[in-house]
Design goal:
Length: 142
């Protein structure tokens, strides 16, 4: 029985490693994100409206809430909005408050839905603001 458990654990480790190697989700620091923005790579801010108002948003961002305050989401509606901006083979960057939500969404988009060039701001808008990078009022975004 002990031998079986060891094999099982090794199989799980191998599976997890293979999933991480094949993932196309890329975490960005602020400098890398700015370089991509300079190349007109779309930025999708998945936070809620109250969060946008609280901190401001990165100029040019597409504001598309993914999770509501209770953690619920409407994937079909969100994907319909996303697909107006990017296709499955296009590069795009996801932004949230701290990078946790975007990491989850990016992994899902890549692993389950076939979006193969998903990037996300690793430490979110908080690190962007802390570094003194530019934000604008949500009211100034179309």
């Amino acid at each position: 029985m002990k031998h079986f458990k060891i094999q099982y654990v090794l199989l799980l480790i191998g599976l997890l490693f293979s999933l991480s190697v094949n993932a196309q989700v890329h975490g960005l620091n602020n400098e890398q994100m700015q370089k991509m923005m300079d190349q007109n790579i779309p930025v999708i801010d998945i936070r809620r409206p109250d969060e946008w108002k609280s901190t401001g948003v990165i100029p040019g961002s597409h504001l598309m809430t993914f999770f509501d305050a209770r953690g619920k989401y409407d994937l079909d509606k969100w994907l319909a909005q996303l697909n107006k901006i990017v296709g499955k083979n296009d590069k795009f960057i996801l932004v949230c408050r701290s990078g946790n939500r975007t990491s989850q969404v990016a992994r899902y988009l890549d692993g389950k839905l076939g979006y193969n060039q998903v990037y996300h701001l690793q430490r979110g808008i908080k690190s962007w603001i802390r570094a003194g990078d530019k934000v604008v009022s949500v009211d100034s975004v179309k």
